[in-house]
Amino acid sequence: MKFLFVTLFPELIEQVCSYSIVGRGMSAGLLSVSCINPRDFTHDKHRTVDDSPFGGGAGMVLKPEPFVAAIRKAKEELPDARVIALCPGGRTLKQSIVEDYAHAGQDLIFVCGHYEGFDERIFNWVDEKLSVGDYVVTGGELPALMVLDAVARFIPGVLGKMASAEEDSFSTGLLEYPQYTRPSAWRGREVPQVLLNGHHEKIKKWRREQSLKVTQKARPDLFEKAELTAEEKRAFGRK
Q: 202-230 pLDDT, tens per residue?
């Protein structure tokens, strides 16, 4: 799977992607990451990519000419890719969206904004707007990297075991159950006995119960949407 970033800061993308799971995936040839800089499509000595907004207001707006030229170049390199602009006005990223991207196997082009945002006309060359949450950051690079990291986990071979991705928080609609490792006793705190007895069915049941408890406490909105058995509804007081 190929990921291409339209970004004013390609060094940031390249640096982050050289580490950890994404870096190992790239080294193994399981995914590729490349960048196109809109400044390369400017024609003035200052390589200007922004200008003041019509109608007044604070900040600067990204110009359509260099960004559209960069997007068109990206589409030449990845003609079947989905073009995603990272901006507050997009649909909010969820695990289901991540899995849709991964299972579709379609290459992704991320258009990363800065300053006060994009000239609206740029969106005519974009397939989708995407937000990573109800807050504002200084640029689209970190949100785009979050999407890349989340999607990469579902590319076969990137993680040691695909089950690691499939069992993560949100993949099941619930938060993940508590995890423990050695030593079994540490500073007066012990690992739950059920995890030490090797009884897989009991372990599975315990993990399910713990996921429900964690989700009910931390994310009641998710808990209300979760599909529960009749026994679980009685145990957790849900109708």
A: 999 999 999 999 999 999 999 999 999 99
Task: Compute φ and ψ for 51, nearest 5 degrees.
Answer: -155, 165
Q: For residue 224, what are the CA distances in angstroms to 89, 203, 219, 233, 239? A: 27, 24, 9, 11, 10
* Proportion of the chain in helix, strand, coil states, percent, rounded to 5: 45, 15, 40
* CA–CA gap between residue 150 and residue 155 (Å, rounded): 10
The amino acid at residue 226 is: A
Instruction: List residues with catalytic annotation.
Output: 88, 116, 153, 168
- pLDDT tens string 36-87: 999 999 999 999 999 999 999 889 999 999 999 999 999 999 999 999 999 9
Rounded to the nearest angstrom, the gap between the alpha carbon of residue 61 and the centroid of all alpha carbons in its chain is: 25
Beta bridge partners of 4: 34, 109
Residue 28: CB atoms within 10 A of its CB come to 10
Read off the tokens for 170. Answer: 């949100």
Q: What distance in Å separates the CA atoms of residue 35 and residue 24, rounded to the nearest whole number?
A: 18
Tell me, yes or no, if the pTM score tops 0.90. no
Side-chain half-sphere of 164: how many Cα atoms within 13 Å?
A: 12
Residue 169, pLDDT > 70, answer: no
